[in-house]
Every structure is written in structure tokens, then in C-alpha cells.
Amino acid sequence: MTSIAPVRWTPPPAPPARHPKNIDVDVIALPGAGPEDTLINDDGSVLTGLYDGRILRVSADGKTINTLADTGGRPLGLEWLPDGNVLICDANRGLLTLDKNNRIATLLSEIDGRPMRFCNNADVTEDGTIYFTDSSTRFGIDEWMADLLEHSTTGSVYRRTPDGEVTRLATGRAFPNGVALSRDRRTLFWAETATYGLYKLDLTTAGAEPVQVASIPGLPDNIARGSDGLIWVAVGSPRNAVLDFLLPKPPVFRKIVWALPDALKPKAADIIEIQAYDENGALVHDLRAQHPGFHMPTGVRERDGKVWLGSIGTSSLATFPTP
């Protein structure tokens, strides 16, 4: 287990009292754990990546599940590329591609001579420009909680152009996670898990700084712009009162928490929280559900009246109609 060097940080106040809408979800059991993200096909089927490296295709009704490939790593975010291939953010291997013959290839494994430690999520423009996050240079996927406890802000947001040039757009970020482009592709949004925030960056202005546009009532994970134009946010878990209490305290307390057996460390709540914002940061949908077969949503996709959820903490996908 990697040791941590906690940095003091005072969490912002929680958002105002909320009255989320309770919804029902349908759950589809999978032959493996940790379907972190989802990607919707034109035929309604869905792709997802599992903890063991497999990429699955799940039929729209959930009755047929096929294995397409194995990345040999830990696939997280999935996106369509302009040529119809799939971009895979593999936490351990970097940016990969899955072609139409189900072959895996490496697109980008290191930046400035340094292997990516935690390639997490991406979005892609029509010309093939990729915007993506590397959440931490300190910890990998198996120790993601250590980064939240340490709060050392080593994450970055990048752009890769079709000619292979990689530019760091934002650095010193606290676990940057999900990524989504605005409808006009002039603004980049991302979720920052460790600061409970949704941020945006003006891509048309040189030297622009990130601006927080929304305070999330929990740990935001993947985000995606839906067919409805909204920025959908998977809230992996509500804010943890113990973590919020410890963050501004002497670092030794968080070191003690990290040294505890896994069974005693903070856990994600057994609820499902999903939000959707407009591009100005106004909350449009605030949704909550509970289901014995699904919790800790980490991926969300809205398309044509249906929302799909992935979860790093279960062996299932979940769906519900767009409100």
C-alpha cells in the first residue's frame, strides 16, 4: 500500500437543501464486476468495460451480452471516434482504440516521457481531437481513495490533436474525472471529484482559467452531454461527513484512516444519485433511486429518452427513462 502525504484543505459548504426526485431504475446483471462507464450504439446496445479488462456489448433489452475484447488493463471512460472506432481510457495503459474488428491498439501511453498513471475519461470532437483527464500522478486506479484522502492535486486535463500533439490545458487539479464538450465545442466541462465541483474552460481564449460552474452534493465521477443538450453527472456517493471533517485537520488523522483495513474505510452510500445541468451550470434534473442490485453510479449517458448508468462498485448496469 502506497503511503500518503495529506494536504490540508477546507471543503466548501454543501449546496443548499435539495429535494431530489425519486425514480425507479431497471438493473441488468453482468458477467463481471465494475462496469465503470457506458457508451450507446445507434441500435440501442451499450458498451462497457469491466474491472478484469473486458469490453462488453449489452443489447438494448439487456438479454444478450457479448465480449468484444480485453484491454489487458482497466478500461474506464469510453467514447466514439469519428471513424466509428471506440476510444478507451484505460486507467493502467492510457488511451487505447477498439476497431470494428475488435482489435485493441495503443494511441497514447505516456506524456512528456511519463506513463499516464490514471487515464480516466474523455470526449472527442468531430475532427478527432481528444480531451481527456489523467486523474493523479500519485496513485493508480486500485488506490483511488488515497488520492481523495491525500488531496495533493496532481491531476491534469489534456488535449490531443489528430496529429498527435498533446497539450496540458489544466494542471494541479484535485482528481479531475469526467469530461464533456459543450454543444458548440467552444467550452470544455469536467468533474473534479475531490473538490465536489463541475468546472468549465473556455477553449477559444488563450490562457483562460477554469471556472467552477456548479457545486455537486457528492463525489462527481463521469459526465456526458446528452442528446437533450444537458451535462449529465454521475454522483458516485454523497459527501462523506468524516472525510469533510478530516480534510482541514492535521494530516495524521487521514494517514490513520488510510492505514485502516478496507472494511473500516469510508464507503460509498447504497444510493443512486444523478444530476443534469445546463451549460450555464443551472441544475435541471436532480434524481435519486435505490436498488439492491446497483449503487455508486460512476458513468451516465442520456440518449433519445433513455439514461444508462455504469458503476465501478457493482456488477450491473442500470437504466431509466429520461425525466
Structural features:
323 residues, mainly beta, Neuraminidase, 3 helices, SMP-30/gluconolaconase/LRE-like protein, hydrolase activity, 6-blade_b-propeller_TolB-like, SGL
CATH homologous superfamily identity: TolB, C-terminal domain
Strand arrangement within the widest β-sheet reads 1-24-23-22-21
The N- and C-terminal alpha carbons lie at a distance of 43 Å
How many domains is the backbone divided into?
1
Q: Classify the beta-strand content into a percent band.
A: 35-45%
Using the coordinates above, name the CATH class: Mainly Beta
Judging from the principal axes of the Cα atoms, what is the shape? globular
**Order of SSEs, N→C?**
EEEEEEEEEEEEEEHEEEEEEEEHHEEEEE
User: Taking Cα atoms only, what radius of gyration do you get, to the nearest Å?
Assistant: 18 Å
The share of residues in helices is: under 10%
Can you summarize the main beta sheet? 5 strands, mixed
Region (Disordered): 1-21
Domain SMP-30/Gluconolactonase/LRE-like region: 51-237
Protein name: SMP-30/gluconolaconase/LRE-like protein
GO molecular function: hydrolase activity
3D architecture notes:
- The protein is mainly β.
- It has one domain: TolB, C-terminal domain (Neuraminidase), CATH 2.120.10.30.
- Helices cover 7% and strands 45% of the residues.
- The protein has three helices and 27 strands.
- Helix 1 (144-150) runs antiparallel to helix 3.
- The longest helix has 8 residues, at 252-259.
- Pfam families: SGL (PF08450).
- Residues 51-237 form the SMP-30/Gluconolactonase/LRE-like region domain.
- Residues 1-21 are annotated as: Disordered.
